Protein: Germination protease
Organism: Desulfotomaculum copahuensis
Amino acid sequence: MYLKGEIRLLLEIYRSFGVNLDLAVEAREIVRGETGQEIPGVKVDRESYEHASVTIVEIVDKSAEAVMGKPVGTYITVEAPVLRENNPAAHQQVGEVLARNLSRFVNLSEYSNILLVGLGNWRATPDALGPKVIENSLVTRHLFNYAPQELKGGMRSVSALAPGVLGITGIETAEIIKGVVEKVRPELIMVIDSLAARSVTRICTTIQIADTGISPGSGIGNRRAGINRETMGVPVVAIGVPTVVHAAVIAQDSINGFLEEMKKNNQAFQGLNPGFAQHIIGKVLEPFGGGNLTVTPKEIDSLIHAMSKVIAGGISLALHPGLTADDYAYYLH
Amino acid sequence: MYLKGEIRLLLEIYRSFGVNLDLAVEAREIVRGETGQEIPGVKVDRESYEHASVTIVEIVDKSAEAVMGKPVGTYITVEAPVLRENNPAAHQQVGEVLARNLSRFVNLSEYSNILLVGLGNWRATPDALGPKVIENSLVTRHLFNYAPQELKGGMRSVSALAPGVLGITGIETAEIIKGVVEKVRPELIMVIDSLAARSVTRICTTIQIADTGISPGSGIGNRRAGINRETMGVPVVAIGVPTVVHAAVIAQDSINGFLEEMKKNNQAFQGLNPGFAQHIIGKVLEPFGGGNLTVTPKEIDSLIHAMSKVIAGGISLALHPGLTADDYAYYLH
Amino acid sequence: MYLKGEIRLLLEIYRSFGVNLDLAVEAREIVRGETGQEIPGVKVDRESYEHASVTIVEIVDKSAEAVMGKPVGTYITVEAPVLRENNPAAHQQVGEVLARNLSRFVNLSEYSNILLVGLGNWRATPDALGPKVIENSLVTRHLFNYAPQELKGGMRSVSALAPGVLGITGIETAEIIKGVVEKVRPELIMVIDSLAARSVTRICTTIQIADTGISPGSGIGNRRAGINRETMGVPVVAIGVPTVVHAAVIAQDSINGFLEEMKKNNQAFQGLNPGFAQHIIGKVLEPFGGGNLTVTPKEIDSLIHAMSKVIAGGISLALHPGLTADDYAYYLH
Amino acid sequence: MYLKGEIRLLLEIYRSFGVNLDLAVEAREIVRGETGQEIPGVKVDRESYEHASVTIVEIVDKSAEAVMGKPVGTYITVEAPVLRENNPAAHQQVGEVLARNLSRFVNLSEYSNILLVGLGNWRATPDALGPKVIENSLVTRHLFNYAPQELKGGMRSVSALAPGVLGITGIETAEIIKGVVEKVRPELIMVIDSLAARSVTRICTTIQIADTGISPGSGIGNRRAGINRETMGVPVVAIGVPTVVHAAVIAQDSINGFLEEMKKNNQAFQGLNPGFAQHIIGKVLEPFGGGNLTVTPKEIDSLIHAMSKVIAGGISLALHPGLTADDYAYYLH
């Protein structure tokens, strides 16, 4: 789809409008471009389910990290367009697929202690996914401290935090989490965040889980500092869901579609400034600043509600081995 | 900006993606195109204030109605970029400018009875403006029926309705309003609605008031039936605020920007299908349907909150002649 | 429990603090007092389910109407303490019991057209049940007007309205409903409302359905005008759920408990003013006005959320004969 | 009002239903009882304003601490019944009175760094005050780190945290705060919390500020661990507002009112079990557990909204010496 020079230009445009390639599957697609060949240092595997397909992208070495713009690690993408429909049985299946894939990253004893962190601003709909997952999660740590032994069968100690956003707290999210981690001392952190995608089809239909945590600048809130094993001292699994597409991507795609149309007609431009696309997009989006304008479907409120149930259900199923199917169904709906 | 054939094409593209030109000032701008001459049958007047500028567009006859795609009537646009800032004194001035312009349409005795109608879905942020204005308005009709005479000095009888949206009620909004109008028998109806604009600069900075009521197909919820003097039997003043830009407009603007860039370089296409732009935009936006995807700034929740205060304040000031400045300030904040 | 003179006194106290006996089972209990004999003109029947018990109180004649303070008609009470627990399977059973009992009042052809009305204020938690049921209901009327025939199998035409409250609209709720009824022309109206109970055990565990509609003065919002067959011209089924206990009831129960304690000790008062209890309660509750103070459990938000799902599910199952178990489960959760 | 033995009984009843005497002025009133004499080790001072009266209770020594059941320190109570009315000018005055009294506890350089903490659950109306104050506060710490020097004139570095509640996080609130304090290193902490009062007149009309921080067991959420200078290592100012009365207090007051009525009639009981009141209240409130049932006025949502503005305004005025009157008015409304 893209030639070498074009990729560089595309990424430059994105950068200039604050657009981050949050999804590894999208980064890979762009980098591979028209060559159709796998990127050196990147391994890909796939699984299929009735209502979901899973793509596992492994970034194996530093050279692949540089090309992909994402740290070495494993990125699992669950794609399930059915999440946009009112189909509770199918949502349940997606939750189970999510749980199974989360389990690849969860290597814990029954006494392990896990901290869930929901990033984002619960007052701004597309950024509210993280706090909503926290609200719907099965939190048990306080019961472990106070309740009798028999209540704990099959449950792990889980705590949860919705740290808020920099604009409201005045504190870097990573600082708040680090402070709490030093008190709670979890063996594992799971961070839930809203992402931006390059395609509107992905909004609330795609879930990415990664063992690399959160990179600086990623997420629709552009988290400033990393939340990962390096900064937190324990493994961090990131669960991200695209809830918006940056308006700059829509603009860029439209211009790109035009260029393709021209190529089909064997026409070409001469004398165009290399930065012309950036210039045009800037003029279209300038008033609010490009990175600040996002595209969402009208039904975004209910899509996020449904997605928060699927993720809270999947996490609970992955973390509490003794959870019954009935309890689980409860968390999904 | 546009040549004749281009306007036709542009409007066709908009129509195919369910985009309506809700603002008369924008429709006029497009129709006038590059000619710079006023449209026959359209009169324009302007006023300036410290924090707001006002444009009055009158569509005088049926020929202008056909060209503009909007019914004969008066459309007043208040433009106030300051509404995006935390400046309470400036917001108060905009509310007063709104009140003064609403008064042009309010020709009532002190015993008149006015019905406010807030269109839209309070669960979907950019469509929640109407219901929020209703919540913040100074409603008095029940006091007129129950309270002693001395409480009513300087107040008119005002009632309010938030009828909900078709998807939740199963009933055309116009049917609900008509049913209530036949009970309440107001002398005037004011309808508040969320609109779509062609420019992101207008989001929550522009207020349009019109004596034509609501046309079918307008508003971001695409109200299906008209709410106007014809259907309601009494004058209907519409107060509309752009809260979104359709994604299709962003896409179209980007392509258009490209074409302009080419013209500057004295280049032209050959052999392009006339529907190429529509085709490209369709491909970019297709997954959710073009009309369903909207662009909003991230801070849309707080912008709508502030705007609902300004409008509720302006309406109260226009309808209740005895309202004091202090009461008014309360309604603005 | 109560002697004749005491009942009269109790009802007087309630009336003076704006407390209405919304539940027929509670009115019957009070009126029967200590006699243990059934009230003439009142018939009672019972049914039991695993997770719910059902009491059917029929007020047969005008003399019973006078004694009970509730109009002639049938009052079905579903009691299900399990609604306070996280038990989705049990909630589903309660929804089915509700559907079965609603069906006693639904005598409709497959082409019938039903209007749901959710009373109350969605901004005030304990009064938000009605609007929340409307949001969760399966509304189809607009599909009947626009969709192809094959989509309608097994569905009836259902529309829905949340008319708001007098303080916000300035319009009597009954007027709004009547206006809409004259447009929609339903064969049946179902009205959902929040009630006050005499016992905190009933909060969000009891559902009353009645073929008498809504009486003036009932509900926690003290609806001013009746919504019933007389005012609406078609049958009105009322679905009511206690969400609060008036503080005056707590005060009265405490005093009453004291009197009982005394009796057990064979002591009695002399010289007490007959209005002493009213006087005491008034002093305790006076600052906000007795009728305005309500008692709720801390978890009222989530109790109302769960109850709105059960009721929306039960209504949908009762009205749409073709609804599948899967669809139904979706509406319950 | 109370005799010695009665006070002991009253406090026992409260304790058994989880009722804490959060307000020092109420504790003092009860302890003083009918004697009318000041409690040894307690000093009281008063100030009056047009719309507010201020009572300063100092608990000077350990013996007073034991009698009052509250730690040695200064408790300032601002009483302003006008907060229940729509009177913006009066609310502004109360905010200024609050600011002046907060300043007694704020002994900081212009470079000091302050952390605001809003306790409570934003999903449960009467417990949402803390998080709502955080949302409305003027937070600047991130600007100090990123913005140019000239923006900071007259501002102090303020950050803010809404840590959530144990039931949702599984983590003691004090642990979360301590973790963040170790990162942010503030010179002063201000904690905002919802309290329970003994009188419904106090709901959202009284503000208590204290230099003792939060004691274990206080607040309507019954915070389990203390948040004070001892646990946090820096001074902690607590700002508390009664938003509920425990139902047990209503019950107890009713019984007490009865006893008084009897005394007036020169009657007395014999043979009453000393625990009779506790027994009666238990029977009335038992189903939900006494401490869990709270009394609130119907308009609690809007009362809390107004109060959160007054407190956020007062805090901002106390902490930012350069705040102008206009900025301040904005925060109040």
Remarks:
- The mean pLDDT of chain A is 86.
- The CA atoms of residues 145 and 157 of chain A lie 9 Å apart.
- Chain A is about 40% helix and 20% strand.
